[in-house]
Amino acid sequence: MYFLGIDLGGTSIKGGIVDKEGRILAQGQVPTKAQDGAEVVLAQMATLTEVLKVTAGIKESELQGAGVGIPGSVDVEKGLVRLAPNLHWSNFPLKEKMEKVLGIPVSLDNDAHVAALGEMWQGAGRNYKDILMVTIGTGIGSAVILDGEVRRGFWGYGAELGHVKVDPEGALCQCGGRGCLETLASATAIVHQVERELKRGRPSSLQHKPGLEAKDVLLAAREGDELALEVVNRAASYLGIALANAVFLLGPEVVIIGGGVAQAGEVILKPLKERFVEALGPWQIRPLPLLAARLGNKAGFVGAAYLALSLLEKGCNE
Amino acid sequence: MYFLGIDLGGTSIKGGIVDKEGRILAQGQVPTKAQDGAEVVLAQMATLTEVLKVTAGIKESELQGAGVGIPGSVDVEKGLVRLAPNLHWSNFPLKEKMEKVLGIPVSLDNDAHVAALGEMWQGAGRNYKDILMVTIGTGIGSAVILDGEVRRGFWGYGAELGHVKVDPEGALCQCGGRGCLETLASATAIVHQVERELKRGRPSSLQHKPGLEAKDVLLAAREGDELALEVVNRAASYLGIALANAVFLLGPEVVIIGGGVAQAGEVILKPLKERFVEALGPWQIRPLPLLAARLGNKAGFVGAAYLALSLLEKGCNE
To answer: Against a cut of 0.90, is the pTM above it?
Structure first.
C-alpha cells in the first residue's frame, strides 16, 4: 500500500510517495504556476504524480490514496478549498477535480495541519498524541492535535496561533485584526521590522542589502548584528509567551516548532525557549518538551500521505 | 438515585443533593472553619451532608456517590488535594477520608472544573459539549471541556486561563509569574487598581470607602464613576482579548463567564463582549455564543454531583 502526499505551496508543489510505514519511496517538486490558473496547477500536480510513480517504480493499482496540504482554509468534509490567497482560489472543489485526474480517493487539509500530522507520524512528534505545532514562515501556521486527531473547532479551520492578539495596539494584520502574533514574529514581520529601523538610519550590517529576507536577518543576528539581534529576540519573546499561553489552555504533551524561521536554529530557538519556560514558571511540575520539527520541508507531503492513510484506515474500521 | 455535591470553599462549604435529572432536592451551606484544621473541615462536610439528607428526605442507601469541588489543584486519579492554599492543605487524601466518613464513593475535582460541569449539565452550557468556562472571582478559574469531558492536559490540572501572560512587564502574580490575567482582571485586581489610584489622590466616589470590594467598584462603574469605569473597562478588555485568544486555539462551541464579577452583569460583560468580538474579527464566520453562567453559586455543587453521577455511569459502562 502506497500513498501520495502533496504539499501545495504558493510557489512550488512538493510531493512524495510514501508507504504505510512512512518510508519515502520517491519525492520531487515542480513550480505551482498559480498565476496561470487552477487548471494549470492541477496539471502540474498530475505531472508530479506521474514522475513520482515512475521514480518509485510502483504500479497504478498500488497507489491507495492521496492527501493534499493547502496554503489556506479548507472545508475538509466537502473537499473544498475555501480560501487560498496565494493560489487566488476561493471555494475551489479540489478534491473532486483531483479525484477525476488521479482516479484515487483524495483528501485535503490545511498545510499547517498536514505538517503537524507528518511530524507526529515520522518526526519530532513520534510517541505523542497531544501536540501543539507552530510553523513560522512567511506567515505563522499552527495545528492542535489531540488524541492523534487534528482539532478543527467551532469554525472548522483549526487553531490560529498566528492570529492571537499579542499587542492590541499593534500593527494591522492581513487578516484585518490588530497586533496578531503574525505581525510581530513571522519571517515577513522580522524583515519589516528591520527595514523600518534601517529607514530610520539605524546602523546595521544589513544596510544596503538588496532583497532582504528573514534568513539574512537571522544570519546577521547569529553574527552579532545589534539590530538583527533585537528584532529576532523580540520575535522569539512574543513566540515564547504565546506558546506558553497556549500551553496554559491546551496542556499538550509536546510543542513542535517548524518552518523556515525555526530552521535557523538556536539563534531564535534559544531565546524563544527561555521566554517559554519563564512564562510557564512554577506551573511546570515536569518539563514540557519544546522541540524543533525534524522533517523540514518534507513534513507537508509526509503528513498529507498520512492523511490519506489514516482516512483509509478509518474507512476500514467503520 | 441521588448524588451529593459539595463545593468546598475557603470560607463556606455549599452542598446539595441532586437527582440524576439534575433536580435539586436539598441545598445548604456551613462555614468551612479551615483555620481549625482538616478534621474540623471534614466534620463540617459530614454535618452538612446529614442535614441535606434529612431535608431531602432520602434514605441512606439512596445516596449513590458524592463529588467535591476543591479550591486548588487536585490529583483526580489518586483522590488527593495537591495544593489548596485557602484551606492550608497540601497532599491531603480527601477522597479516602471522606469515603470513610460518608460510606459512599467520593470523587474530587478542581472547583472551576466542577462549576463548568454544572453549567454544562444544567446551566448555560446545556446543548454544548465543547466549552470554555472562566470564573472571575477572587482569582480567575477556568475549565476546558471537550466532548463533554474536562481536559486536564499534560500536567493534570487543566486549563489555567488566569495565568496566561497578558502583560509580560506587568505586576507579579501570587503564582510567581508576571503579568498574569489574574493580576489585571480578577476581583482582587480590580480592587487593587482602584486603591492604587485613590492613594494617588484620584477623585472618585469610592474615596474613604472602608473595606472596598470589587462589587463596590462595579456598582460605582454602573453609576458612572470615572475611575471605577476605567478599571472595569481595562479588566473587561484584558478578559475579552484573552478569551478571544483562547478561542483561536481551542475553538469551543461556547464561552461561559461565571463568578462574582461576571454576576455584576452588563457593566463588565458588555465591554468584555465588545473586545472579544473585535479581537476575533473576520475569523467569526458565524457568531460564537458568549454567555453568562446561569447557576450562580449553585454551579459548584451541581457540577460536583454530576461528577459523581458521570463516574458511576462510566463504571456501569465498563
So the answer is: yes
